[in-house]
Structure formats: C-alpha cells, structure tokens
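Sequence only, no structure available. Ideas?
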Amino acid sequence: MSKGALVTGASRGIGRAIAVDLARAGYDVLLIGRDLAALEETAQLVRAARPDARGLPEVCDVTDPLAMEAAVARALQEFGSIAVAVANAGQAENGLLLRMKPEHVDQMLNVNLKSAFTLLTAVAKPMCKARAGSIVLISSVVGVGGNAGQAAYAAAKAGLLGLAKSAAKELGSRNVRVNAVAPGLIETAMTESMPKESREHYVRTIPLGRTGTPEDISGVVAFLCSDAARYVTGQTVVVDGGFLM
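Reply:
I predicted one. Tokens follow.
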C-alpha cells in the first residue's frame, strides 16, 4: 500500500512545489486543480522527482463538497489510504473596502476558505478511521497582519488559521494533525502583476532581503507532513523571510 496525498491548487506555483516535495518524501499524489494541461505538467515533475511516484491529475471544483468527496474517493481507491492533505487552492484579488462588491467577497471566501473546509471535511473521516494523518492549510501573512486593499482576501486567509486550530482540537484524539503555513511574498503567477515599486518596497522591509520561492514553502509543508513533526498540531508557521517579525 502506497502513502497517499492530496494537494489542491497543484497546477503551478506553491502547490506544484509541494506535490514534488511530497513525491520525494515517498508519497503518491492526487493533483487537484482546474487546468488539466498544467496538472499533467506537475505529474511529470512528480515522476521526475521519484521515478516510481504516481502523480494523478484530478480536475475538480474545490468549493464543491460533492466534487471533493469524489476526489477523496478516487485517492482512496488509487492509493489505499490518505496520509496527507494540503489545502493550497487560492486566489488573490485586490479591492478597497468602501468599493467592495458582494460578489468579490463571495469569490475570496469561496476559493480561499470554503475550499479548505471541503477538503478537510472530506479527508477527516478516512484519516480518523486510520487514526493517522496530517492536514496543512496554506494561509498568508496577509491573514496574520492584514493589508490595505485586501480585506476580503485577508479575512479568508485569517479564517484558515482559526479553522486549523479548531480542527486540530477536534481531530487530535484520532492522531490527525492540522497546521497552517502563512507564506510571505512568494514568486508565483499570483504575484507577477505586483507593481515594481510595491515589490521593491516589500523587499526592502524583508530582513532576508529577497522574495521567497515556492520551494521555500514546500519544504516547510513537507516537514509538517513528516514524522519529524508528529508532535506539532494547531500551529501557524510563518514563512516570510522575517517580514512580520
């Protein structure tokens, strides 16, 4: 029986790096996202990281509970068990609070917060039955410290922190751990559109003097999913080069 893992938002960026690191750690990974071609590229990288690794693309609406339950059922059928689940799907859109439209709020909450609920509730049952599992929710430093122009995004990402703590308390008796990771400014497609002046300002305030890479995040996630973190649950690990320090 292989070690099974699920990663949402696995088509690029942080999710892709997480899938590759989990493959290196011995996991077979169900790669969940919206872009089949991009997921297949991730699958190729998974196999390159470990020749016998299985990276299976799964096109799925991460906000749909029934679709996520079906994805979990596929992972159980393919891998035999699910040891790890990473809720990485996310979307960032700016909007001033006084001009914010209800549909903007709904979109930010659905993609960034509701999607984590659907994954967590779908994997909790098989993990509790197996009395083992690690769940990681990818939040953001914006969810910890807030940011002007990103109220809805910040609210969703902050919600993940409370979700991680509450789920950790509920599931801990079944040896299922739940943690959150809060990345800082990471070089991904999501941050490509940031104005040059804003980017330079942020870099000047980061003690390590650089932006992060997806691999800076994936290594921390891989640690939280490993036996080395077997006594770590309900925590938020900030990975931001010291930005919030």
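The chain has one domain: 3-239.
Hope that gets you unstuck.
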